[in-house]
Design brief:
By secondary structure, this protein is an alpha+beta fold. It contains 16 helices and 11 strands. The chain has a domain of 143 residues: Bactericidal permeability-increasing protein, domain 1, CATH 3.15.10.20. The two termini are 44 Å apart. It holds the Pfam family Aha1_N.
C-alpha cells in the first residue's frame, strides 16, 4: 500500500496558507521564505517530518539566488528526508547543499550521514573528511568520522576474508560464529531481498547476530510517544494515534468547543501575500501574519533573545593552558559588533516550539597579564539556529587577526582561538543560551 501523495499532504497541512502563497515581489518572496524557514524549524523540533519537508521544498521554489541560504535549506531538507527513511533523497539534498556552498560544513556532514544510511561508508568518510578539513575541532564531527572509519576498516577486513563477496556489508565477528547479512531496501525502507551466508565453528555453543543503527540524534523538543504501536515503516506512511487507536494521518476529530475556537479553516486564496506578511497589527501582537487557519500561533521574543544572547557571548572567555607557547594568556570577547536575526515561541496544536535564527559578528582579544602579548581580531558566526543540536557546535567564518605585536604567535592564535579552546567556549556559551531560552518560555511545572 503506497503512502499519501504530496498533494494530499499539502491539502491537509496546517501550513496550507503559506504553501499555497504565490508572492510576486522580491520583498514578499523574502518574507515568505523567512516564514517558511521559521515554521520548518518548528516542525523539525516537533519531528513533524512531512510538514518540514513541504515547508523546505516550498522555500526552495521561492528563494532568489542566495547560495548560502539555499545550502542551508538543502541541508535541512536532507535531515528531514533521512528521518523519513528517504535516504537517496537525503543524499541528493545534501549534495545540492555542498554544490551551492562548498564551505558549508553541515552540508558535508549531512551528505556523510545520508551515504552511511545507503551503506556507502567509503564515500561517507570522504564527505565527513571534507567537513573535518573545514572545521577540524568539531567534536561531534570527529566522533562521527571515527565511527565511519571503523565501518570502512571492517569492510576491508571482510574483503580479505571472503575474497570480495558481500562488499558493502559490515561484519560482526565472535569467537564462535561469523554471520554476514546483506539487505537491499526500497524507497519505503522495506526489505526486498535478503542473502545470508553463515559459517559456524564447532564449539558447542550458538551466537545470535546483532545489528546496529546509525542514526543522527538532534537535540530537538518533542517526544517519541506511541513508538510501541508502530512498525518502522508506519510513521513514514502517515499513521498516528487518536484516543489510543492507530489511524490515518488525515484522521481529525474536533469537539464542538474546538470547532468554535478554530472557526472556518477552509483554504483561502492570498490575493496579496506581500500585504499579509507585513501586517503591522499581527507583528505587534507577536503572532504570525500568515496564520489564517488558527493552527499556528507565534509570539515574537526577538528583543529578549538578542539581549540575553549578547550577554552570553560577551561573558565568554578562554585561558590558554600552561603547556601552550603563551601560558595563561586570556581570550575575551571585547564587543558584539552585530547580532541580527529573530526568535519566537510557537504553539502548534498545544505544543510549544522554540524558533530562532541569528548571525553574529564579534571582536576578540588575546593578552597576557605581563603585557608582553596583545592581539585583537574579529570573527563571524553565521548560523545560530534551531537546526543545530546541543553539542554539535557553530561554525566560525571570516576569522581575522587585526593587530598583533608578535607574528610568531599567529599559529597559537589559529590553534587556540580560531579552531579550538575559545571556539569551543563560544559553542558552550551559545548552547547555555539555548537552554535558557527553552527554560524561560517552555511549559512551567504545575
Amino acid at each position: 500500500m503506497s503512502g499519501p501523495s504530496t498533494a494530499m499532504m499539502m491539502m491537509q497541512s496546517p501550513h496550507r496558507d503559506v504553501l499555497d502563497a504565490t508572492p510576486d515581489t522580491d520583498d514578499s518572496k523574502a518574507k515568505l521564505v523567512e516564514e517558511l524557514l521559521s515554521r520548518g524549524r518548528a516542525a523539525v523540533g516537533a519531528k513533524s517530518w512531512m510538514d518540514a519537508k513541504l515547508l523546505y521544498e516550498k522555500a526552495l521554489t521561492v528563494i532568489n539566488d542566495d547560495a548560502n541560504r539555499k545550502a542551508i535549506l538543502n541541508s535541512n531538507l536532507s535531515l528531514v528526508e533521512k528521518n523519513m527513511g528517504n535516504f537517496e533523497a537525503a543524499r541528493k539534498a545534501a549534495d545540492n547543499a555542498t554544490k551551492e556552498d562548498p564551505t558549508y560544513v553541515k552540508g558535508w556532514w549531512r551528505l556523510g550521514q545520508a551515504l552511511c544510511s545507503l551503506h556507502r561508508p567509503k564515500e561517507a568518510l570522504e564527505a565527513l573528511n571534507k567537513a573535518k578539513f573545514l572545521e577540524p575541532t568539531n567534536k561531534a564531527l570527529i566522533k562521527e568520522a571515527e565511527k565511519v572509519q571503523k565501518q570502512v576498516d571492517e569492510e576491508v577486513a571482510l574483503m580479505e576474508v571472503d575474497g570480495g563477496e558481500d562488499e558493502a556489508t559490515p561484519v560482526s565477528k565472535s569467537s564462535t560464529a561469523a554471520t554476514t547479512t546483506t539487505t537491499r531496501t526500497n524507497a519505503s525502507n522495506t526489505p526486498t531481498n535478503t542473502k545470508t551466508n553463515t559459517t559456524t565453528k564447532s564449539t558447542g555453543s550458538s551466537s545470535t547476530p546483532s545489528s546496529s543503527s546509525e542514526t543522527n540524534k538532534m537535540d530537538v523538543d518533542g517526544d517519541d510517544e506511541d513508538t510501541s504501536l508502530f512498525t518502522k515503516s508506519e510513521p513514514v506512511r502517515g499513521y498516528k494515534v487518536v484516543n489510543g487507536k492507530k489511524t490515518s494521518y488525515f484522521h481529525n476529530e474536533l469537539d464542538e468547543k474546538a470547532k468554535a475556537l478554530i472557526g472556518d479553516i477552509a483554504p483561502k486564496k492570498l490575493d496579496n501575500p506581500s500585504a499579509a506578511t507585513t501586517n503591522a497589527s499581527a507583528a505587534k501582537q507577536g503572532t504570525s501574519a500568515w496564520n489564517q487557519a488558527g493552527t499556528w500561533e507565534e509570539k515574537d521574543v526577538s528583543q529578549w533573545a538578542k539581549d540575553t544572547l549578547t550577554k552570553a557571548i560577551l561573558r565568554t572567555t578562554f585561558t590558554l593552558p600552561a603547556s601552550s607557547p603563551t601560558p595563561n594568556a586570556l581570550v575575551t570577547v571585547q564587543k558584539v559588533k552585530s547580532l541580527d536575526g529573530h526568535a519566537s515561541v510557537a504553539v502548534v496544536r498545544g505544543k510549544t516550539r522554540f524558533i530562532y535564527e541569528y548571525s553574529c559578528q564579534l571582536e576578540w582579544q588575546l593578552e597576557q597579564n605581563d603585557g608582553d602579548l596583545e592581539c585583537k581580531g574579529s570573527l563571524a558566526i553565521p548560523d545560530i539556529d534551531g537546526t543545530i543540536g546541543l553539542g554539535e557546535g557553530y561554525e566560525i567564518h571570516e576569522f581575522a587577526i587585526d593587530t598583533v605585536n608578535d607574528n610568531a604567535v599567529k599559529p597559537v592564535i589559529d590553534r587556540f582561538v580560531h579552531r579550538g579552546g575559545f571556539h569551543e567556549a563560544l559553542n558552550e556559551s551559545i548552547d547555555d543560551w539555548v537552554r535558557l531560552f527553552r527554560k524561560e518560555f517552555g511549559p512551567k511545572d504545575s
